[in-house]
Amino acid sequence: MRHLIDILDLTCEEIDELLDTADSIIENPAAYATRCAGKKLATLFFEPSTRTRLSFEAAMYELGGHVIGFSDAANSSSSKGESVSDTVRVVGSYADIIAMRHFKEGAPMVAAMKSTVPIINAGDGGHNHPTQTLTDLLTIRREKGRLDNLTVGFCGDLKFGRTVHSLISALSRYEGIRFVLVSPKELQVPDYIKDLLTEKELSFIETTDLESTLPEMDILYMTRVQKERFFNEEDYLRLRDSYILTPEKMRLAKQTLSVLHPLPRVNEISVEVDDDPRACYFRQAKNGKFVRMALICKLLEV
Amino acid sequence: MKIDSIQNGIVIDHIPAGKAMQVYQYLKLDEAEGSVALLQNVPSRKHGKKDIIKLDGVTELDWNILAFLAPDCTVNVIADGNTVEKKHLKLPETLTDVIVCKNPRCITTVEPGLHHIFKLANRETGVYRCVYCESAHN
Ligand SMILES: [Zn+2]
């Protein structure tokens, strides 16, 4: 039995297979419509995340399966003090697979140690969110036709953005990836990510300037710069605006650029960019459902 | 200051000055079978000052814990009054129930019955990471 706790639990070959399955689902959804008939997915959301939960639930319904679960710890047994281990042991006797989101980092790993059914980490605190990374990888491969030999820009909060860390780790396993890390000094990627890139002898630059580096990028991964990350309002306002993607900045970019964003966005991509064919973030959100369908099929071995 | 020389036991030399008490606590030397001497702030040619722990009648220790606390210490194993072995320790790959995770968001802070497990992430810097939340321990 397999779980998905960390994106690096999967080999590059397994990721390729999952993305192939997702492509095949997109092409011919009818072929998968009863693949999980009679199976139940439990969505255990100890921390609310409507977007991720709906994506999992839609994925299971489109595979012909059923969904049980809760969307908020206040309504769950954990509010009565039940441990993660006990919860998954009980839920595992009702469901065939579990998608878990938890505010405690490492909770899905603990769940996997005790569970009798596959566990999917649907986000644990600021730690991992592997199905978001699969979504990002599927989007890059569908937009670009490959996962290697790309210049990938990351912009915004690179310090606390777990989706950024996971995607960098995942992409660091492919040939010819160049990273351009654009952020305010206060929000640069943590040292362990830089250590990883240095250790693997990967090319990366750190910069505070989006405009001058945008023209080289094949991919631009935008993230939110959150107000609560700053000590004062002044810094926040000053920095926020230099990391907003606008139609003017898009003029500097390649015609083949793909702009990704894990969503939800606040104002870091202005809405006028949405109509630009290079804006991929809504296609990306849709891809999330397909890659979760592929993952559920793989882990259920159906 | 003089401590009787050891017949059969262990001398842990070159412990960083001020660290001997911590080593004593982590190795639970208060429960040791034989006699224990702690020397602190001993002048050292190499390091200025150092701590030393002498254990008479003790032949086994948890080397992993010792290596984690004082990776550069020297262990002298004494038999019949002679040094029969000099050990240099290596940082262990895994630490189980030696240290606890300081990340307040870590599952180990709330879930009962979990072992506190850390893996060596970088041998050069000696950084250990919690296996659950991957926070560095420092
Ligand atoms: Zn931890």
Short description:
The complex is a heterodimer of chains A (302) and B (138). With 302 residues, chain A is of the alpha/beta class. Chain A contains eleven helices and nine strands.
What does this molecule look like?
The complex is a heterodimer of chains A (302) and B (138). By secondary structure, chain A is an alpha/beta fold. Chain A folds into two domains: 7-128 and 288-300, Aspartate/ornithine carbamoyltransferase (Rossmann fold); 130-284, Aspartate/ornithine carbamoyltransferase (Rossmann fold, 3-Layer(aba) Sandwich), CATH 3.40.50.1370. Chain A has helices at residues 12-27, 50-62, 84-91, 107-114, 130-144, 162-171, 191-199, 210-213, 233-242, 247-250, 281-300; strands at 40-45, 66-70, 97-102, 119-124, 151-155, 178-182, 203-207, 219-222, 258-260. In chain A, the strands form two sheets. In chain A, strands 7-6-5-8-9 form a five-stranded parallel beta sheet, covered by helices on one side. A four-stranded parallel beta sheet of chain A has the order 2-1-3-4, with helices on both faces. The longest helix of chain A has 20 residues, at 281-300. In chain A, 46% of the residues are buried. The model of chain A has no long low-confidence stretch (mean pLDDT 94). Helix content of chain B is 10%, strand content 40%. Chain B has a five-stranded antiparallel beta sheet, with helices on one face. In chain B, strands 6-7-8-9 form a four-stranded antiparallel beta sheet, with helices on one face. Bound molecules: zinc ion (ZN). Zinc ion (ZN) binds at residues 101, 103, 106, 108, 130, 132-133, 135 of chain B.
